[in-house]
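Our preliminary data section would be incomplete without showing what the modeling component actually yields. Below, a chain of 336 amino acids is followed by its predicted structure, encoded as tokens that our downstream tools consume directly.
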Amino acid sequence: MLLLLHHQKNKQTNMKKILLSIVATTLIGVSMQAQTNEPKGKTVVQVFGNFHSELAEEKPKPAFGLERTYLGYEGKLSESLSMQAVMDIGKSSDVGDMHYMAYIKKAEISWKKGDFTFKGGMISTTQFNFQEKFWGHRYVMKSFQDQYKFGSSADLGLAAYYNPTSWLTMDLIIVNGEGYKKVQSNEGFNYGIGATLTPLKGFQIRLYSGLNQGNGIDKKDALNLAAFMGYKGKDFSIGAEYNHKMNTLETNSYDQSGLSLYMSYILNKHINLYARYDELSSTDDWYSKDESSAILGAEFKLSKNIKISPNLRLSMPKAQEQDNTYSAYINCSFGL
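Predicted structure:
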């Protein structure tokens, strides 16, 4: 039995090495091809900040916050090739809220030919990237799966997209499974398959299933399931997503599920209103941070790259000993 487990661990380790070799070979090959082409691109600079304060407290503690800064470059190497290299500088829960750490968020090469697109390196994952873009207010609040850590927004690996018709896009992804902050710290991979459908103009459906292999003898594989449906019109958008995660923390029966509803309304080219409601639950209430939450806000676009958004937030913990919290924020985003 021990020999079998040892063999299985060595097999996963070898697979990790093979994936890293493929990614490295792809990047080297593309780099050599790009030497004959003059890259055309732009600098990436994006900063997320806020001013916030808890409400309904005897002694509220208002504070300024700098949540995240992206620095990098994106460019087109040829008609088929493009690249992105972006550094993420933000808070780390591992070392405390007063500290900032820098990570490589993206270091990806993309190759597009006909209906196919391939990406390799430190790439954006497909688990909730579509929902995040539809929500459209990432600088105010992360999308549901990112907010409640159902998965990572970027990881090291490979992804393929196939767009056979105007109404269907399919995608496959294989990544390390630890995200961009802990590259290859565990054994196993994260596999994902998804499909995006546009049956009617403005109406979109997104389905996704992912398997993250467990790390260790007693660790269980985690399964992610997600379904999204949304509509974007000329002046408004509305979306709904349901997410389910089985064996959270690689532990049997530690399941989580959640619903997120969001909408926005465009008043004019400079102002839009938005609202969102989240519901997070866990099997047998094992997760102490289960909650319902809501946010209501307005976004002011001072220019193409400068946004300011005052908003009110309500958090309703499901644990009986915890009180509801109310807070006011002024979020901002600016960059190049």
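Residues 1-9, 30-34 have pLDDT under 50 and may be disordered. The chain has one domain: 2-335. Preliminary results of this kind motivate Aim 1 of the renewal.
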